[in-house]
Amino acid sequence: MAASPHTVSSRLLTGWVGGCVWYLERRALQESPHTFMHLFRSVSKQWITFQHLTFLRRMYVTQLNRSLNQQVKRKPEPVASPFLEKTPLGQAKAEICEMRPLPPPSLPLPRKPNEKELLELESASIIDSSLDAEKETKEEKHWKEMKLHLDDLPGVLARLSKIKLTALVVSTTSAGFALAPGPFDWPCFLLTSLGTGLASCAANSINQFFEVPFDSNMNRTKNRPLVRGQISPLLAVTFATCCAVPGVALLTWGVNPLTGALGVFNIFLYTCCYTPLKRISIANTWVGAVVGAVPPVMGWTAATGSLDAGAFLLGGILYSWQFPHFNALSWGLREDYSRGGYCMMSVTHPALCRRVALRHCLALIGLSAAAPALHVTTWTFPVISLPINLYISYLGFRFYRDADRKSSRKLFFCSLWHLPLLLLLMLTCKRPPGASGAGGEPRS
User: Fold this and answer.
1) What are the two backbone dihedrals, phi and then psi, of residue 400, each rounded to the nearest 5 degrees?
2) Residue 52 phi, psi (nearest 5)
3) Distance between CA 100 and CA 296 in Å, rounded?
């Protein structure tokens, strides 16, 4: 029978030392099973925890793949690298040279974006567009001096001289020259037209030079060359001088001194009286009407060399025509004129603006009737011009009664074709050269 460890320890050691050894042996035998079980439980807990985490990771990947609507693909088998095989050096180089490029990776299948993603994309696009718009507005507000190319110079100078208004001035001058009694002198006609056009270009250029700070506040005039910085003020003044000097010289020495004096007077009246008066008083409209009435008088004096009743009649027709034309135009630009600081009838005295337009529409009927009495046209002219004069008078009455933008626009567009048609009718009804004049004597 085997002896127990207690008897072995008691046999080997006796006394106090033997008792200590016996206690330690007993303590070790009692705690060894518990320690082993504790270690086993801790290992098993760690294994269960790792297995649980692996399961959760697989579930997450599966759910994610389902949400993205992706199809599960087999993992491609690894291609054995030729470098791991024990092959000769030459054969390995040949295999490397013969290796084909790998196919491009397959793209994932398209998926439908969620509502949240769409909202995020829309908000991002809106933010980007707003930022771009802010940048564009900042760049537009920032003043930049524009470089002038030689090819753009004719167009810039044409806008500086208000080429359309200059063409109207030359056409009314030509009408005055053609309606004057006497033979038609072509060289004198060409010199008169050229001189009047140069004088008009000079007056319009100086007008824009003075009104740069005010034109920049108006939508109608903010794109003028001096406002945009396309040309310098020195160049504008130089261009005006180069137009005024030869223009006045042609009218004075090429035509006659009276026509040249009228040209100088009109340049002074437009640049030194009408332009500054636009910011002071509504009387600028009447002064501007006188400026527009002078060109046909210049045409008459260029042909006759004198101021006759026919010259004042033509001047009166142009004077009255400008009130319905300009008052109707300024009615639709009241906000622009007030923003620019101009004192216009349509802004400060709207009722007077409409009354004056109607009065001068009716005055055109009386002036047309006076043309044969002053021996400018035949008596046919008042009859055939009555319909168009009555029509513009009717539109003037509508403008006076309604006082709205629609009636003003109709009156303005009617004035654009009324004046050319009226002058054309006067030319067709011109009194023949052999008819008796105002004093009863035949004109040569």
Assistant:
1) -65, -35
2) -65, -45
3) 91
According to the 3-state scheme, what is the secondary structure of the chain?
Answer: CCCCHHHHHHHHCCHHHHHHHHHHHHHHHHHHHHHHHHHHHHHHHHHHHHHHHHHHHHHHHHHHHHHCCCCCCCCCCCCCCCCCCCCCHHHHHHHHHCCCCCCCCCCCCCCCCCHHHHHHHHHHHHHHHHHHHHHHHHHHHCCCCCCCCHHHHHHHHHHHCCHHHHHHHHHHHHHHHHHCCCCCCHHHHHHHHHHHHHHHHHHHHHHHHHCHHHHCCCCCCCCCHHHHCCCCHHHHHHHHHHHHHHHHHHHHHHHCHHHHHHHHHHHHHHHHHHHHHCCCCCCHHHHHHHHHHHHHHHHHHHHHCCCCHHHHHHHHHHHHHHHHHHHHHHHCCHHHHHHHCCCCHHHHCHHHHHHHHHHHHHHHHHHHHHHHHCCCECCHHHHHHHHHHHHHHHHHHHHHHHCCHHHHHHHHHHHHHHHHHHHHHHHHCECCCCCECCCCCECC
Q: Which residues contact 240 (CB under 8 A, 6 or more apart)?
A: 201, 202, 203, 205, 206, 209
Burial 99-137 (b: 16+ CB within 10 A, else e): eeeeeeeeeeeeeeeeeeeeeeeeeeeeeeeeeeeeeee
- Compute the distance between CA of residue 365 and CA of residue 321 in angstroms, rounded to an integer: 11
* pLDDT < 50 positions in the chain: 1-13, 36, 39-40, 43-48, 69-73, 80-87, 92-93, 96, 105-110, 437-444
Q: Which pLDDT belongs to residue 432?
A: 86
> How many residues make up the chain in this entry?
444
Would you state the pLDDT for residue 433? 77
Spatial distance between the Cα atoms of 71 and 62, rounded to a whole number of angstroms: 11
What's residue 168's pLDDT?
Answer: 96
Question: CA end-to-end span of the chain, whole Å?
Answer: 175
* Six token digits for residue 178: 């053609």
What are the pLDDT digits (tens) for 311-352?
999 999 999 999 999 999 999 999 999 888 899 999 999 999
Both tokens assigned to 13 = 């050691």
Instruction: List the one residue out of 289, 293, 304, 290 whose CA is nearest residue 259.
Output: 304
Q: pLDDT by residue (tens digit) across 162-182?
A: 999 999 999 999 999 999 998
pLDDT of the residue at 63: 57
